[in-house]
Design goal:
With 67 residues, the chain is mainly β. It has a single domain, classed as 2,3-Dihydroxybiphenyl 1,2-Dioxygenase, domain 1 (Roll). The chain has 1 helix and 6 strands, in the order βαβββββ. Strands 1-4-3-2 form a 4-stranded mixed sheet, covered by helices on one side. Strand 3 and strand 4 form a beta hairpin. It starts with 8 loop residues before the first strand and ends with a strand.
Amino acid sequence: MSVTGLDHYLIRATDFERTKDFHVSALGFEIMPRPDSLFPGYWLGLNGKIQVHMGRDVVLTGRRRVK
């Protein structure tokens, strides 16, 4: 089964690569070009359109990020 469309959403994932792999292999998303950013992430798309932004889930404590 593949997804035919979504209306733009963000996924915050702790197991980043595994989550990306699931969306690509099980749901049929493509990895889309993404500009350089201060944080790691992916843009995933369907039919050449970006549908999903994916970023690493982190816990913020004070000014320091904890993974």
